[in-house]
C-alpha cells in the first residue's frame, strides 16, 4: 500500500470535524499497519497533529488508535509503547478540562494506556481479545496464582472500559435523540470497540472465577465476587441502554446479560453460563458524515440530472423539506413572480411542442398523401404494365409464329424483372406508410402525457396559490400583533428608564443627605483630613458636573442610552458625599473661623446639589437644571481650601523643576563634602592615634567612606531615572511643566533629597566626635540607619512613576542594595569597634573585697533598672515623634493615600534594608 494513501486516510480519519470516523478510512489505516508490519507511518503522522490543543481531534485519534490496537498488526503495540508516557501526560492535561471532550479524552487515554499495559504483561492475549478456552488456560500456565493475578488485571481493564462507557453517556443529553446527530455519533462511535472488549472480558472473568472457586476457598475470593457484582450491574445497565439507541441498532447487535449474575459457589452453574456474542452485520459501517465536497463522493451524471430536476421543481413550488412554516421570505412576491415566469415558460414550451406536433402531423399526413399518390401511380403503372404485358402477350402470340423462341423468352424475362421491381417499390411504400402510422401514434401519446402533466401543474399552482393566500393572511395577522407588541415593549422600556432614573436620583439624594447628617455627628470621623485632598475632590466634582450635563443632553437626544446618565448621577452623589465628608474632616484641623466658613460652604453645597438633582426627575424642566449655584459653592470651598493649604505647599509650581535639580545637586555636593571630611579625619587619626584606637577609627571611617560612595552612586542612578521618567511622561510639554503637573510627586523627591543630604552631614559630625573620643558609637549607628531610611525614601519616590522594566530602575535598585550593604558595614564596624574598646576597659576585681563586689553589684542593678525605665520612656517619646513627623510629612511632602505610594516608615525601611 502506498504510504501517501495511508497518510491521507489517517488525516481524513483524524480531523477536527465533530463527526464519527468513517469506516473506510479506519480500514485503510488498519490495512496499512499490516502492509508495513507496524505503526511507524501512523505515529509519524499523528505526532504532527495538535492533539493537545483540540479535544475533538484527540478524541478521534483515540478511536482510530483503539481500532489499530484491536485489529492492526501485532507490532502496533510494540511501536506504540514508546509513546505511553506522552499519552499519560495528555490524559492528565485533558483531565483539567471539565466541559466538552476534556473528560472524555482523559478517560479514553487512560483506557488505551491500560490496554497497552495489559497486553504487554499478557502477550498471549491478542488485541481483539478473541481466545478459545484452551488458550485461556494456557495464558494462566495452570497456576492458580497466575489466574488470580490475571483476574485482577481483567477487573482493572474492564473498569477502565466501563468508566469510558459511563463518561460518554453522562456527556450526552439522553432526553433527546442524540444518536441521530453527528455530534452524538462522534461520541458514540468508539463505544462499539468498548462493547466488543467488554463482552470478551466479562466472559473471561466468569470462567476464571469459576476456575478460582474450584481451587481456592470462597472467603479468599470474597473481594473478587464483590468487584464482579459491581461491574456486572454496571455492564448490564450500559448494554441495555446502548441497545435502545438508534445508532447502535443498525451497526451492532448488543447481547443482553442474564437477569441474575452467575453463582460461583455452585460449580454446576458454569454449564448455565452463555458467552455473550456481539454481532456486527456485514453491511454495517460508520455513518458517512464527511462533507460532500470530497472528490470520491461526487454523484454521477444521472443523479446530477435528477438533482437538477428536483432543484427546478423546488424553484417552482418551493422546497418540500422546509422545516420552517413561517419562512415567508421564500414565498413572497419576488419568488411568486419567478414561479409565474417559470410556469409561463412551461406553457410556452407546451405550446411550442403542440405546434411542433401539429406540424409533424401535417407533414405525416402530407407524406401519407404523397405515398398514397405514389402507390396510385405505381398501381397505374402496374396496370399499364399489365396492359402492356397483355399487349405483349397478344403480340407475342401474334409474333410467336414469326419470332424466334429465344427472343420471346428474353422479352418475357425482361417483363418479369420489371414486375419484380414494381413489387419491391410497392413494399417500400407500404413500409413507409406503417412507419408514419407508428410515428403518429407516438406523437399522439406524447401529446396526451403533456396534456396530463399540464393539468397536474395547473392543479399544483392552484393549491400553491391557496396556501400562499392563507400564509399572507397569517403574515398580516402576525405583523399586526408584532406591531402592537413592539409598541408595548417601547412603552415598557420608557417607563423602566424613568423608574431607573428616579431610583438613581433618590439613591443619590440619600447619599448626599447621609453625608450632610454626618456634620451633626463629628465623632464618626476618626482622623483629620487635608485641604489638598479636599481640593482634589472639588476638582473631581466639577468634572463630574460637566459630564452629567453632557450625559443629560445625550439622554434627551437618545432616551435608549441611559447607562451614561445613571453612572454620572451615581458618581456625582458619591463625589459630593466624599467632598462633604473631607470638608468636615478638614475642619477638624483648621482654625475656628475658616472651619466655620468651610462647614457652612459644605452644607450649602449639599443643599444645592439636592436641588440640582431634583431637576432630573422630569424631562420637560431641563431649562431649570442650572448648575450655577452648585459651581458657586464649589468655588467658595476651593477658596477656603487654598487658604488652608500648609506652608510646605507654597512653592510655585513653576519653580518645582528647578528646585528638584537644585536639591539633587545640593545632595550630591553634601555627599562629596562629607567624603572629603572623612578622608581628612582618617588622615588625622593615622597621624595622632596608635594601637586599638587607630584600628577602630580606620575601620569605622573606611566603612563610612564606602557608604558615602554608595550614596553617590545611588544619587547618580536616581538622576538618570528621573530624566527617563520626565522624558517618557512629559509628552510635548517641557520638564518644568511635567514637574508642575505632578507637584505632589515632585515635592516627595525634594523632601527625600533634603533628607539624604542632611543625614550625610549629621553622620560625618557624629563620626568626627567618635574619632575624637567625645562621641557615642550609638549616634553613629543611628545616623547610618537614618541615611539608609532617607535613601529608601528617595528610591520609593523615584519608583512611583518609573517603568518596572526600565534598566535605570534596575540600576537604581542595585545601587540601593549597595547602600544597604554599606550601612550594614558601618553598623558592623561600629559595633565591633565598640566591643574592642570595651574589652580594653575591663574591671580589675583583684583588689576588691566581697563587700565591695556586693556593693558594686547592687549599684549595677539599680543602674540597670534606671536605664530600662529611661529606655521605655525614650521609646514612647520616639514613637510620638515619629507619629507627628509622618503626620506632617504626609501633607507637606506629597504623600497621599489613594493617589501615590505612601512613604515607608523609618523602622520599616531600616528593617527591610538590614
From TrEMBL:
Residues 648-889 form the I/LWEQ domain. Residues 343-481, 855-884 form a coiled coil. Keywords: Actin-binding, Activator, Apoptosis, Coiled coil, Cytoplasm, Cytoplasmic vesicle, Differentiation, Endocytosis, Membrane, Nucleus, Phosphoprotein, Transcription, Transcription regulation. The keyword DNA-binding does not apply. Residues 892-914 are annotated as: Disordered. One of its GO terms (biological process) is cell differentiation. GO terms for molecular function: actin binding; clathrin binding; phospholipid binding. It comes from the Eukaryota. It is found in: Cytoplasmic vesicle membrane; Nucleus. Residues 1-126 form the ENTH domain. The keyword Signal does not apply. One of its GO terms (cellular component) is synapse. InterPro entries: ANTH_dom (IPR011417), ENTH (IPR013809), ENTH_VHS (IPR008942), HIP1_clath-bd (IPR032422), I/LWEQ_dom_sf (IPR035964), ILWEQ_dom (IPR002558), Sla2_fam (IPR030224). Plays a role in clathrin-mediated endocytosis and trafficking. Involved in regulating AMPA receptor trafficking in the central nervous system in an NMDA-dependent manner. Regulates presynaptic nerve terminal activity. Enhances androgen receptor (AR)-mediated transcription. May act as a proapoptotic protein that induces cell death by acting through the intrinsic apoptosis pathway. Binds 3-phosphoinositides (via ENTH domain). May act through the ENTH domain to promote cell survival by stabilizing receptor tyrosine kinases following ligand-induced endocytosis. Belongs to the SLA2 family. Homodimer. Binds actin. Binds HTT (via N-terminus). This interaction is restricted to the brain. Binds to IFT57. In normal conditions, it poorly interacts with IFT57, HIP1 being strongly associated with HTT. However, in mutant HTT proteins with a long poly-Gln region, interaction between HTT and HIP1 is inhibited, promoting the interaction between HIP1 and IFT57. Interacts with CLTB (via N-terminus). Interacts (via coiled coil domain) with AR. Interacts with AP2A1, AP2A2, CLTC and HIP1R. Interacts with GRIA1, GRIN2A and GRIN2B. PANTHER family: HUNTINGTIN INTERACTING PROTEIN 1 (PTHR10407), HUNTINGTIN-INTERACTING PROTEIN 1 (PTHR10407:SF14). This is Huntingtin-interacting protein 1. It comes from Sus scrofa (Pig).
Amino acid at each position: 500500500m502506498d504510504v501517501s494513501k495511508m497518510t491521507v486516510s489517517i488525516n481524513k480519519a483524524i480531523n477536527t470535524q465533530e463527526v464519527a470516523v468513517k469506516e473506510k478510512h479506519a480500514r485503510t489505516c488498519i490495512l496499512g499497519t499490516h502492509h508495513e508490519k507496524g505503526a511507524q507511518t501512523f505515529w509519524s503522522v499523528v505526532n504532527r497533529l495538535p492533539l493537545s490543543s483540540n479535544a475533538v481531534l484527540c478524541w478521534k485519534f483515540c478511536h482510530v488508535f483503539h481500532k489499530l490496537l484491536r485489529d492492526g498488526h501485532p507490532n502496533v503495540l510494540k511501536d506504540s509503547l514508546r509513546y505511553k508516557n506522552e499519552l499519560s501526560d495528555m490524559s492528565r492535561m485533558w483531565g483539567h478540562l471539565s466541559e466538552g471532550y476534556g473528560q472524555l479524552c482523559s478517560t479514553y487515554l487512560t483506557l488505551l494506556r491500560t490496554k497497552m499495559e495489559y497486553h504487554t504483561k499478557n502477550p498471549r492475549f491478542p488485541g481483539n481479545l478473541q481466545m478459545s478456552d484452551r488458550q485461556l488456560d494456557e495464558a494462566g500456565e495452570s497456576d492458580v496464582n497466575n489466574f488470580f493475578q490475571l483476574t485482577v488485571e481483567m477487573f482493572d481493564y474492564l473498569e477502565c472500559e466501563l468508566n469510558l462507557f459511563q463518561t460518554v453517556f453522562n456527556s450526552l443529553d439522553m432526553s433527546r435523540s442524540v444518536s441521530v446527530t453527528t455530534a452524538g455519533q462522534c461520541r458514540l462511535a468508539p463505544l462499539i470497540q468498548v462493547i466488543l472488549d467488554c463482552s470478551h472480558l466479562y466472559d473471561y472473568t466468569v470462567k476464571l472465577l469459576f476456575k478460582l472457586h474450584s481451587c481456592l476457598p470462597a472467603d479468599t475470593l470474597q473481594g473478587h465476587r464483590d468487584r464482579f457484582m459491581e461491574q456486572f450491574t454496571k455492564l448490564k445497565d450500559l448494554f441495555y441502554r446502548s441497545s435502545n439507541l438508534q445508532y447502535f441498532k443498525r451497526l451492532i447487535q448488543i447481547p443482553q446479560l442474564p437477569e441474575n449474575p452467575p453463582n460461583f459457589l455452585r460449580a454446576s452453574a458454569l454449564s448455565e453460563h452463555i458467552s455473550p456474542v456481539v454481532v456486527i452485520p456485514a453491511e454495517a459501517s460508520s455513518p458517512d458524515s464527511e462533507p460532500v465536497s470530497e472528490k470520491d463522493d461526487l454523484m454521477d451524471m444521472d443523479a446530477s440530472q435528477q438533482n437538477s430536476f428536483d432543484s427546478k421543481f423546488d424553484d417552482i413550488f418551493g422546497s418540500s423539506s422546509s422545516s420552517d412554516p413561517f419562512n415567508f421570505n421564500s414565498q413572497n412576491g419576488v419568488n411568486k413572480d419567478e414561479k409565474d415566469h417559470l410556469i409561463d415558460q412551461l406553457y410556452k414550451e407546451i405550446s411550442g411542442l403542440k405546434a411542433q406536433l401539429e406540424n409533424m402531423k401535417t407533414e405525416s399526413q402530407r407524406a401519407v398523401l404523397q405515398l398514397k399518390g405514389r402507390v396510385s401511380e405505381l398501381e397505374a403503372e402496374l396496370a399499364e404494365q399489365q396492359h402492356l404485358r397483355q399487349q405483349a402477350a397478344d403480340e407475342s402470340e401474334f409474333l410467336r409464329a414469326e419470332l424466334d423462341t429465344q427472343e420471346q423468352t428474353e422479352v418475357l424475362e425482361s417483363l418479369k424483372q420489371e414486375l419484380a421491381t414494381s413489387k419491391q417499390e410497392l413494399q417500400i411504400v407500404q413500409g413507409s406508410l406503417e412507419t408514419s402510422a407508428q410515428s403518429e401514434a407516438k406523437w399522439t401519446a406524447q401529446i396526451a402525457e403533456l396534456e396530463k402533466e399540464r393539468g397536474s401543474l395547473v392543479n399544483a399552482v392552484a393549491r400553491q396559490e391557496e396556501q400562499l393566500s392563507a400564509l399572507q393572511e397569517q403574515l398580516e395577522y402576525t405583523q399586526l400583533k408584532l406591531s402592537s407588541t413592539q409598541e408595548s415593549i417601547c412603552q415598557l422600556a420608557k417607563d423602566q428608564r424613568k423608574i431607573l432614573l428616579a431610583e438613581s436620583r433618590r439613591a443619590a439624594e440619600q447619599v448626599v443627605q447621609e453625608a450632610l447628617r454626618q456634620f451633626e455627628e463629628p465623632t464618626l470621623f476618626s482622623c483629620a483630613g487635608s485641604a489638598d485632598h479636599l481640593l482634589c475632590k472639588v476638582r473631581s466634582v466639577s468634572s463630574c458636573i460637566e459630564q452629567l450635563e453632557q450625559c443629560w443632553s445625550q439622554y434627551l437626544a437618545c432616551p435608549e442610552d441611559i447607562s451614561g446618565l445613571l453612572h454620572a448621577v451615581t458618581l456625582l452623589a458619591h463625589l459630593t458625599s466624599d467632598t462633604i465628608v473631607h470638608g468636615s474632616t478638614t475642619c477638624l484641623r483648621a482654625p475656628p473661623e475658616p472651619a466655620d466658613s468651610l462647614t457652612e460652604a459644605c452644607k450649602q453645597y449639599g443643599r444645592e446639589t439636592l436641588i440640582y438633582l431634583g431637576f432630573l426627575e422630569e424631562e420637560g424642566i431641563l431649562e431649570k437644571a442650572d448648575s450655577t449655584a452648585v459651581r458657586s459653592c464649589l468655588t467658595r470651598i476651593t477658596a477656603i481650601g487654598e487658604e488652608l493649604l500648609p506652608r510646605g505647599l507654597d512653592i510655585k509650581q513653576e519653580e518645582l523643576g528647578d528646585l528638584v535639580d537644585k536639591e539633587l545637586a545640593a545632595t550630591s555636593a553634601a555627599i562629596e563634602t562629607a567624603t572629603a571630611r572623612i578622608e581628612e579625619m582618617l588622615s588625622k587619626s593615622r597621624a595622632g592615634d596608635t594601637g586599638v584606637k587607630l584600628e577602630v577609627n580606620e575601620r569605622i571611617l573606611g566603612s563610612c567612606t564606602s557608604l558615602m560612595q554608595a550614596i553617590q552612586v545611588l544619587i547618580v542612578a536616581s538622576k538618570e531615572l528621573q530624566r527617563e521618567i520626565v522624558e517618557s511622561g512629559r509628552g510635548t510639554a517641557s520638564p518644568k511643566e511635567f514637574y508642575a503637573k505632578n507637584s505632589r510627586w515632585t515635592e516627595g523627591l525634594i523632601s527625600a533629597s533634603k533628607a539624604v543630604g542632611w543625614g550625610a552631614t549629621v553622620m560625618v559630625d557624629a563620626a568626627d566626635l567618635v574619632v575624637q573620643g567625645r562621641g557615642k558609637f550609638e549616634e553613629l549607628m543611628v545616623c547610618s540607619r537614618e541615611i539608609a531610611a532617607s535613601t529608601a525614601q528617595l528610591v520609593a519616590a523615584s519608583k512611583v512613576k518609573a517603568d518596572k522594566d526600565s534598566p535605570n530602575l534596575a540600576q537604581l535598585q542595585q545601587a540601593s542594595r549597595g547602600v544597604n550593604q554599606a550601612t550594614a558595614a558601618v553598623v558592623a564596624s561600629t559595633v565591633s569597634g565598640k566591643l574592642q574598646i570595651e574589652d580594653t576597659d575591663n574591671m580589675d576585681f583583684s583588689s576588691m573585697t566581697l563587700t565591695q563586689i556586693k556593693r558594686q553589684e547592687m549599684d549595677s542593678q539599680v543602674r540597670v533598672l534606671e536605664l530600662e525605665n529611661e529606655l521605655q520612656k525614650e521609646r514612647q517619646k520616639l514613637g510620638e515623634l515619629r507619629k507627628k513627623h509622618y503626620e506632617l510629612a504626609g501633607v507637606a511632602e506629597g504623600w497621599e493615600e489613594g493617589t501615590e505610594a505612601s512613604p515607608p516608615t523609618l523602622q520599616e525601611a531600616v528593617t527591610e534594608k538590614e
